[in-house]
Amino acid sequence: MAAIAAARSESDLLDAKGRFFGKKGAVSGILKGVAGLPVEERKAIGDLANRARAELESAFDARLAGIREQERGRSEGRERIDVTLPGRAPMPGHRHPVSQTMSDILSAFRRLGFSVQCGPDVETDYYNFEALNFPPEHPARDMQDTFYVESGTGDLVLRTHTSPVQIRTMERRKPPVRIIAPGTVYRSDSDITHSPMFHQVEGLAVDRDITMADLKGLLTEFCRMTFGPTTPVRFRPSYFPFTEPSAEMDIRCVLCGGSGCRVCKESGWLEILGAGMVDPMVFGFVGYDPEEYAGFAFGMGIERIAMLRHGISDIRLLFENDIRFLSQF
């Protein structure tokens, strides 16, 4: 009883209980020894031992409750709430810069007469490659850094671009077609300018008498709507299996104004998208007559546009969910 009364904390009290009620404690030893007493003493000593244990347990519980009440009182004194202070309003959220850029791009192309079409993230090899003029042995497949998905036929992939949406749309519709296809795409590539998961918007227009001039005019207008009316643009010859002729489109570097910097590799220009006239071979997969119809296609990475608009140098910052970074936009 003296040890229980002397305890000043819950830890002290539990130590005292262990000394008396533990397997080798005094109370436990007495209770175990009752069985070895003569029969005539066993009942009397057993009753005394049980009463002693009950009194000690009661004293222990009372002291424990008292210690906890004292601790609660001290805690309330330290953590007193001032109910007269104004409330703390939750921090308002806002759209992620990638989501906002995606929305702005879709809005721009809707105003230019395009409708939005979507497709599955897991695609067949046919829609992701073959119908886009990537035969199985084509070396351009190596540029796609593809994630393959196990299946019974072995031909499922995580789509490497949103171009399969163009094929699926042309299978369902006859010209004229004017669509943009936004969505998530996947490539096995990761560094400061590449992510294994990112977002694309691709566009397609098919009709009679469409020319490269229509493509250049459309994309030039889009760049002016996105980066400002005075932003210089240029087109460079390039190669894509599904377009011929093909081109890359650049804008004057938004960070250095064209004087040359690390981001534009001292060239003064930044690549923002690829484009070209739809290869007649692609029309063969969807049943369009290339003698009657022509079309153009283009594609861009949403993260790249967002990085250029906001001066972000590392794509990984967009996916780390750091509030300190995202709250700037």
Which helices and strands occur, and which strands form pairs?
Layout: H1 2-6, H2 10-21, H3 26-33, H4 39-78, H5 97-111, E1 115-116, E2 122-124, H6 125-128, E3 147-149, E4 156-158, H7 163-172, E5 177-186, E6 197-207, H8 212-227, E7 233-240, E8 243-252, E9 269-278, H9 280-286, E10 294-301, H10 302-310, H11 323-326
Category by helix and strand content: alpha+beta
Separation of the first and last Cα atoms: 66 Å
Helix content: 25-40%
String of helices and strands? HHHHHEEHEEHEEHEEEHEHH
Quick one: how many beta strands? 10
What is the number of helical segments per DSSP (H or I, 4+ residues)? 11
What would the average pLDDT be, to the nearest integer? 86
Mind telling me which CATH architecture of the largest domain this is?
A: 2-Layer Sandwich
Give a brief outline of the structure.
This protein has 329 residues and is of the alpha+beta class. It has helices spanning 2-6, 10-21, 26-33, 39-78, 97-111, 125-128, 163-172, 212-227, 280-286, 302-310, 323-326; strands spanning 115-116, 122-124, 147-149, 156-158, 177-186, 197-207, 233-240, 243-252, 269-278, 294-301. The strands form two sheets. It has a seven-stranded mixed beta sheet, sandwiched between helices. A three-stranded antiparallel beta sheet has the order 2-4-3.
